[in-house]
Amino acid sequence: MKKLFYAALAALVVGAVLSGCGAKKETADHAQPTEASAAAAEGEITAEMACEGVTNYCRGAYDWSAAKENPSIMYVEMGEESETEYQVVFHSYTGALVYFYVDKSDGTTKMTEYVPALNIEEEAGSFRLSDYLEKQG
Length: 137
Known about the structure:
Low-confidence stretches: 2-35
Structural class: alpha+beta
Strand content: 25-35%
Oligomer: single chain
Helix content: 25-40%
Order of helices and strands: HHHEEEEE
Mean pLDDT: 77
Number of helices: 3
Largest sheet: 5 strands, antiparallel
């Protein structure tokens, strides 16, 4: 009986975590080109641009209301860097992590969601970083 209870509880937690961390599937093709997006289109992606673009994406795609009183429960930080990409990590209040892999040459950004408590990892899509960079200056 305990096994059934724990299995049902685990399924409920997985469902709540995955639905709470889901990204909105909207495109920003209507956005006007900016200086930062023009630089991104030319292949000049910097670590600052990667962090800014991912932060802007996360602010639009995820519900930040849970962090209104305590901003430390949801945040974006830079991860590891390789010769070809930057890793940016979004920490959700649910405990889930979303890893963003930003290609330095063209700004293509791939996402992977990971729920450490349940050891679940899955691909979560991709987007163009330039769509989420704001005008500099």
